[in-house]
Amino acid sequence: MNAKNILLFLVLATAFWLAARNSELSLTELSRGLPNVFDYLLRMYPPNLAYAPKVVVPLIETLAIALWGTTFSIIGAIPLGFLAAKNIAPVPAVFWISRAVLNFFRAINEIIFGLIFVSAVGLGPFPGVLAIAVHSAGMLGKFFAEAIENVDRGPIEALEATGSNRIKVITYAIVPQIMPQFIAYCLYRFEVNVRAAAVLGVVGAGGIGFVLITNMRLFEFENLGIILFTIYITVVGIDSLTTTLRAKII
Amino acid sequence: MKQIEVKSLYKTYDDGTEALKDVNINIEEGEFVVLLGPSGAGKSTFLRCLNGLVKATKGTIGIYGLSPITGKREELRKIRQMTGMIFQEFNLVNRLSVLTNVLTGILSYKGTTKSVFHVFSQGEKLAAAHCLQRVNLLDKARVRADNLSGGQRQRVGIARALIQRPKILLADEPCSSLDPKSTQDILDFLQKINREDNITIICNLHIPELAVKYGKRIVGVSQGEIAFDGKPERLTDPVLNRIYGFDQVEPSNGN
User: Fold this and answer.
1) Which chain B residues are closer than 8 Å to A167 by Cβ?
2) Is A21 within the bounds of a domain?
3) Distance of alpha carbon B206 from alpha carbon B41, whole angstroms
4) How far is the C-alpha of A201 from the C-alpha of B138, rounded, in Å?
5) Which of A153, A164, A250 to mutate to test the interface with B (most CBs of B within 10 A)?
6) Residue A161 maps to which CATH number?
7) Domain boundaries in chain B?
8) What is the residue-level pLDDT of chain A in tens, covering all 250 positions?
9) Is residue A10 part of a domain?
10) Which residues of chain B are within 8 Å of residue A82 when distances are taken between CB atoms?
11) What is the pTM of this model?
């Protein structure tokens, strides 16, 4: 317990306290509001099983949005990831621009992109695909760039010593090294994007999210129960599927 | 024309380290040269200057007249095709098979598209198999490189160099990560290809006993300079002291 640690503690404590004031944390508000939450949840019971068939198609649409959104993001992230890797970028300018583009895509949440694309191309699943593609490209690209920068330099040196050109060195010395992480992260991204696609529907980008927000606005609580339950099952299912696949890759 | 001509070679790294100072040396075809010296003496830097992995700051290097310092892409490629290299840490691509690792040695002769899609001809695979046979590892051709022992990995490294049909083999501390038996196996093999194929060997070692046993010519390197250049018999204790700087070491602990 020295002076530096005490000072650090005080600074952190002040920061936390100011943040609590700013976000209006309130135990009284919570205890007052908790009964409303239970009331809300109770209205969803009993769930309206007759509504279940109406959920299937939107759910498939959500999965389709996630699938194509992720696929496009991989296609975009591969070149961007390579260019944003310090050991690959031909000139520093390329590196800086690629990093800037990736950071922009990452910083803006897919919901914001969703709103932008919905106003650009209209309501429906397609703007959802675009929103996921762009935001995920940023996330995947940055991850690839870091994986590429962290590869073992040894094999790169060995391949350069045989007279191979840049592309061959990348193909044989770098790609095999990052392949397992690459695939694992793509699968992880797909799982995240299923959840994102569900939420994007809330801003009009199709899928189960759109059904969800519609029923919320119409106060159809028994339908909400079924909708939330199917979302839950789907996410858990995709989660365990991707986890199993990722274990097989490593 | 000498095979390798080095004149007034200097290398200073960006952080100011003077790795090589005024190195002059000529090497003929078929020699077995051992570079002997402590860590940090400049041996690795010297090898890497020869094939251009490190760019020398001053001086000239001629490999059959080609220069890794001034040479552009084509010239550098020709030099690297002529010089094979093996490394202390083997530097194999761990997730690829032994056979594919050996095949990477001839990538410089293949088209880029075929290379990217891992398309190798029967002839190329046969050549790789032949090299693996020479190092006694043909039965491990389909095994992943990281499933081999250290000695086996270094032999794959040698096979990868051999498939290039090199005139020169640069060996950067090839046995420093190996046990004594594997060390002997590897150095015996280098001796063999030096005799049978007339491949010039330039081998970094830091153990004097090994240097004397295998080197036909010993070049002592100390702090970036050549401290000795001659036959193993002339490597006496005073010379070793000069190379390793034992007479310059200050006793610590207040003696």
Assistant:
1) 112, 115-116
2) no
3) 10
4) 58
5) A164
6) 1.10.3720.10
7) 4-248
8) 788 999 999 999 999 999 999 999 888 989 999 999 999 888 888 888 888 888 999 999 999 999 999 999 999 999 999 999 988 888 899 999 999 999 999 999 999 999 999 999 988 899 999 999 999 999 999 999 999 999 999 999 999 999 999 999 999 999 999 999 999 999 999 999 999 999 999 988 888 999 999 999 998 888 988 899 899 999 999 999 999 998 887 6
9) no
10) none
11) 0.82
Under an 8 A CB cutoff, do B104 and A163 touch?
no
Euclidean distance between CA atoms A141 and A97, whole angstroms: 13
**Residues in chain A closer than 8 A to B78 (CB atoms):** 163
In which region does residue A21 sit, left (phi positive, over 0), alpha (psi from -120 to 50) or beta (all else)? alpha
Which residues of chain B have a CB within 8 Å of the CB of A155?
91-94
Q: How many CB atoms lie within 10 A of CB A49?
A: 10
Distance in Å, alpha carbon of A174 to nearest chain B alpha carbon: 9
Q: Per-residue pLDDT tens for B87-142?
A: 999 999 999 999 999 999 999 999 999 999 999 999 999 999 999 999 999 999 99
* 3-class DSSP string for B26-61: EECCCCEEEEECCCCCCHHHHHHHHCCCCCCCEEEE
Task: Please name the fold of domain B4-248.
Answer: Rossmann fold (3.40.50)
Task: Establish, for the pair of chains A and B, how many residue pairs have beta carbons separated by less than 8 Å.
Answer: 83
Q: What is the ipTM of this complex?
A: 0.90
Is A32 inside any structural domain? no
